[in-house]
Every structure is written in structure tokens, then in C-alpha cells.
Amino acid sequence: MAPEVRTIVNLKPYREALALPGLRSLLLVAVLARIPLTATGVTLTFYVVQDLGRGYAAAGLVGAAITVGAAIGGPLLGRLVDRRGLRPVLVLTGVAEAVFWSTAPSLPYLLLLPAAFVAGSLALPIFSVVRQSVAALVPEQRRRPAYALDSMSVELSFMVGPALAVALVTAISARTTLYLVGAGIVAAGIAFWLLNPPTGGVPDASAPPRRVPRHEWVTPRLLAVLAVSLAATLVLGGTDVAVVAVLRESGEAGWTGAVLAIWAVASLVGGFAYGAVHRPFSPLALMAALSLCTIPVGLGGSHWWLLCLAMIPAGALCAPTIAATSDAVSRLAPAEARGEAMGLHGSAVTVGIAVGAPLAGAVIDASAPAWGFAVTGAIGALVALAVLPLELRRRRATTAVPTEPERELAPATTN
After folding, report:
1. Residue 204 CB partners (closer than 8 Å, separation 6+)
2. What does the pLDDT look like over 291-331, one tens digit per residue?
3. CA torsion sign, 361 to 367 to 370 to 374?
4. What is the dihedral of CA 153, 156, 161, 164, to 10 degrees?
5. What's the whole-model pTM score?
6. Phi/psi at 20 (5° precision)
7. How many CA atoms lie within 13 A of 29 on its CB side?
8. What is the separation, in whole angstroms, between the first and last Cα of the chain?
9. How crowded is residue 10: how many other Cβ atoms within 10 Å of its Cβ?
10. CA distance 130 to 271
11. Which pLDDT band, with edges at 50, 70 and 90, does 57 fall under?
């Protein structure tokens, strides 16, 4: 049994990836830098509700303003990284973050909304920069475990950041927590400025970067990967809301943290397995499986422990799906445009979460909490079905043996 387990889950890919110069320090700085970024939504919600005396809808508008700004600004900042390098962008966004978080606690609500939009559009691009740097540091054949490690680090940040923000708000105040979150974000920007990981966009500051026309890399296949990314995070955003609603209806809201923790741990385990197994899995197949596993989760809502068990299969597919989409984008975009491509990927991820949560909420309000899982999962499955014909047509039209990037999105087949 032991030899069989070793052949299924192999640690060698992780050892080889972490042995590459610069990757270990990049991932370590990334997990710490993302913690304050993951705390922004919770902190702003508490501030708007408690300190400004507004409702949760008003707090949601502030979060939506940051999200829309980030979705618009992400690709633009990525393009700037491609053309000017990382450090100028970090200076620009670091100053913008410092201005916003130092003034936000004193802004009235009507000024906080547009300020949040501007701050979102100039937000520190840590998530996309890390993925871009992974592609620059790691050869193609070793990127899968590297992106799996990155996805697991994101899960760790989301496990720590919001919980730490709630603890600080409870122990001190929401206003003071805003300052602390802002200081953490600025510190993250300084850390990345000092680390200055390679991005692949500007190898030599004295030489003008090669311009790659968008039509050469914004292909139907890349758009399909972005659609898969958006659908995956739509399912995740809807699941987050549906969990809370199901537990509240069953009178077990106190177990919400435990259920979400099990979901996150399952994602970590799945991400680890994805990077260690010998056979790669396509993002399309992973997203389809994630969606199908999410549809019946609400059936376990009668007891919190049943809900935990029901969420494990879908949870185990979260990190692998995001890692696979990041890997696919890194292969489909040229190095000279990878920053913009990763910015588009980040926008797709952001929009998916932003749409999934209110969509699930609307479905739950109109029907029952269990339908929040079913509807968002069904939408993900429909997106997979919509993308599948494109891939099948491409495979039929391909006469040569496909390269690794060409195989990345297509579903795996067995003989």
C-alpha cells in the first residue's frame, strides 16, 4: 500500500519547485502580504455599519466599489508592469493605498464610495504579480506544483486575514483596524518593492520592451480560460453565502466558522494533491467537477456536520481549479504581455466572487438556502458546457500533436 500511495502523491515536484532560486521567498512574502488584503472587506463592512451607522447594503456598496475598481484597474496595472517594470507600479499603488487607508476613517459615506472605487482601481496588485512572478521564475514543466503552492498560500491568507480583522475590531475598534489594515498593505508593498521578483515583462530597463499585439494572445482559448475562472469563483462566492444561510435556517449559525474552516482545509488538501499527482488536470474539467459537487451540498444542511461532509468534495477542488486556471493563463500569454493577462485573470476571479455572492443571496431570498448551492453550481456547469464545444472544435481542427499549452484546457481522455 505504501509504494502505491507514494506513486499517487509524489513530493518530488514540490521539492524541485521550491529549490528554484527565488520561489520560496516569493511565496513566503506573498502569504504574509495577502493577509491585510484579505481583511479589507470585513473591516470596511464593520466600519460602515458600526462607525457610520449605515446598513449592510451600504457596506456592500463600498465593497462593490472596490471590486469594480479592481476589476477595471487590474489589467491596466498589469500592462503597466509589462511596460515599465514592477517597482514603478508598486510605488504608484503603494502611495494610493497609503492615501486611501489614512483618510478613509475620516471620510463621510458619500465620499467613501468614490474613494473606494479609486482605491480599488489602484490597489496593490499582489495576487496577479505573484502569479506573474511564478511564471517568470518557474519553467513550464514545473509550474503546476508552484501554482498549487500559490493557491494554498491564498487559502491560508483568507483563513487568517478576515478572522484577524474581526478580532481587532472586537478588541479595539473598526476605525483603528482600518489604519492597521492600511499599514499592513503599505508594508506589503514595501516588502515586494525590496524583494522585486522578476515578472518577465521588462528584462532590461535600458531596452524598450517588445510590444505584442493583443490579437496575438487574446485568443478564444484564453477567453475560455477566463470564463472558466469567473465561473469557478462565482460558485465559490455563492457557496460562501449559502453556507451562512443554511446554518442560520437550521439554527446552527454558531457552527459557521467550523464549516468554513473544514471547507478551507479541504481546499488546502486538494491543492496539495493537485500539485503532487503525476497526471495534470485541465481547468475546464476541474471547474465542471467543482460545480457538479456544489449543486447537492445544500442537502446536508439539516446538521452542521452533514454540511461539513457534503462540502469536502467541492472544497477539495477549490485550490486546484484556481491553480489550473493561473497555470493555463501563464502558458497562453507571452512573457511580454503576461502582466496584463494575469490582470485579466485577476479581474475574472474578482468579478466571479462579486457576482456569485449577491446572486446566491437573491436566489436564497426568493426560495430556500439550499438553492443557493444548486443555482450557482448549475451556472458553473452551464459555463463548462458552453466552453466544451469550443475545445472540441479546436481538437478536431488540430492535425499536429498538441503542445502542453494546447492540452491545458481540454478535458482529459482515457483509452
Report:
1. none
2. 999 999 988 777 888 999 999 999 999 999 999 999 999 88
3. negative
4. -150
5. 0.83
6. -70, 135
7. 23
8. 25
9. 15
10. 17
11. confident
